[in-house]
Specification:
alpha+beta; Arc Repressor Mutant, subunit A; 3 domains; four-stranded mixed beta sheet; two-stranded antiparallel ribbon; 20 helices; 49% helix; DNA-binding; nucleotidyltransferase
Length: 438
């Protein structure tokens, strides 16, 4: 048996997309929010002396928030001044309220173990070992901390945190503190009949205590967090005039990029080959950045315009219904990849006269019904919420009963789907929705 090995040369021509660094950056720029884009351009200007950045000048026509009486609310007054940390806030109170004694030194020691949520993270027995103080002295020091603001600070667990807040609230229900102290587990597990029997009170009284506890904060120190990210700059604006919906691009929300031609010409006169090479590279960087930012704006505008075109009823009707819409619907019309559409809608916002909405919120899967009418998942969620809102809270609807009611309306969903939508809407299960109000 002969073994023959033959060699031959063949030439093939193939076409493939090379993921260059510039292409990767272009994809990243599209994914940026407006705030991230501003930071990216600012950083680019630090590396390129030929870039001239004109800061954004965005003004919004969105109406100011109004109260129930119709008066305007100065929402800036609602934002707390959190420049001071929780630790600094506690230290200031300690120096103002307590004399310079050994007990105060123990208080200052324990404060260092208060976490950002306001909880004490060190065991008192360990603190006794570390400081040399007696258990009574450390307990007294902790008591002084728990008398400081915010109410609930210095607690060692959630139960103690809620008890501290209740103790300092003159409007707390009469039985709230004792129920938290003796029946915290039963209250959490909603064993209200047991609580009512133990204290010889009615179930509605237990309900009032539970409702009150819902108003307390489980993390008293969180109020001292950062206020970063409290605002957004919409990328698009929608105006409705005479039943006509128009989309505008808010490119003024991003910095304007200009080329410093005079500086370029002055540097070019040097004739130095290294300088000329440097100028060429930086000019190319400028051209790429300007083009990429413009392409980003065009993509977001085109995607947003197509979304608005398909969701006209949302802007024209009072109920603001959402029609079934998926990424593929937009990508096929604009002849772009679905991933491009996804990047163009995530973290991008659209401004209307009645609110600001993220572009991706206009996408919703389609569900078929017995009547052959297509419904979006948003429609089903809204209907599910309506059924729960109108239920008898003494006998809340189970997931299976909700399935039956939706099926009766021609909406085919499973029990598992109802449970998933209920969780997405942050609606508790039927056992946790039960109330004992008189």
């Amino acid at each position: 048996m002969k073994f023959q090995q033959q060699f031959s040369q063949q030439q093939k021509q193939t076409q493939k997309l090379a993921m260059t660094q510039k292409l990767q950056q272009s994809i990243q720029v599209l994914q940026f929010t407006t705030e991230e884009l501003v930071d990216f351009i600012d950083n680019a200007s630090l590396e390129n002396p030929l870039l001239d950045i004109i800061p954004p000048n965005y003004t919004s026509s969105y109406s100011k928030p109004r109260s129930s009486t119709g008066t305007e609310i100065n929402y800036l007054n609602q934002i707390p001044d959190n420049q001071i940390s929780l630790f600094e806030y506690l230290i200031d109170q300690i120096h103002l309220n307590y004399r310079d004694t050994y007990l105060r030194s123990l208080v200052l020691y324990l404060v260092e173990y208060i976490d950002l949520n306001g909880f004490l993270t060190i065991d008192l027995e360990e603190a006794v070992t570390q400081t040399g103080g007696t258990p009574i002295q450390l307990l007294d020091a902790l008591t002084l901390i728990q008398q400081l603001d915010p109410a609930g600070v210095g607690a060692r667990n959630l139960q103690e945190c809620l008890m501290l807040q209740t103790e300092r609230d003159n409007y707390a229900p009469p039985m709230a503190y004792i129920i938290l102290e003796e029946c915290f587990t039963e209250l959490v597990e909603r064993k209200w009949e047991t609580i009512a029997k133990k204290f010889a009170i009615a179930l509605p009284d237990v309900q009032k205590v539970f409702d009150y506890i819902q108003t307390l904060t489980p993390t008293p120190g969180s109020a001292f967090g950062s206020t970063d990210g409290l605002y957004i700059i919409p990328d698009l604006t929608v105006k409705v005039t005479d039943n006509q919906v128009t989309v505008f691009s808010n490119r003024s929300g991003a910095p304007e990029i200009k080329f410093q031609q005079n500086y370029f010409e002055q540097m070019e006169k040097s004739g130095d080959p290294e300088v000329l090479k440097y100028l060429k590279e930086k000019k190319q960087d400028f051209e790429w950045l300007k083009k990429t930012v413009e392409q980003r704006g065009d993509t977001i505008y085109n995607v947003g315009k197509e979304i608005v075109k398909r969701q006209q009823d949302f802007f024209l009707q009072k109920e603001h219904p959402i029609k079934p819409l998926i990424l593929k619907d937009i990508s096929e019309v604009l002849d772009i990849h679905e991933s491009t559409v996804s990047r163009a809608v995530n973290g991008k916002y659209l401004e209307t006269d009645f609110g600001v909405f993220e572009l991706k919120s206009f996408f919703s899967q389609k569900l078929s019904s017995e009547e052959g009418v297509d419904r979006s998942t948003n429609d089903v969620k809204n209907r599910l919420k309506q059924l729960v809102d109108s239920e008898d809270k003494k006998k809340p609807l189970s997931d299976q009963k909700l399935v039956t009611l939706l099926n009766d309306e021609g909406i085919e969903v499973s029990r598992r789907t109802v449970a998933k939508y209920r969780d997405a809407l942050k609606i508790p299960s039927s056992t946790k929705r039960k109330r004992y109000d008189e």
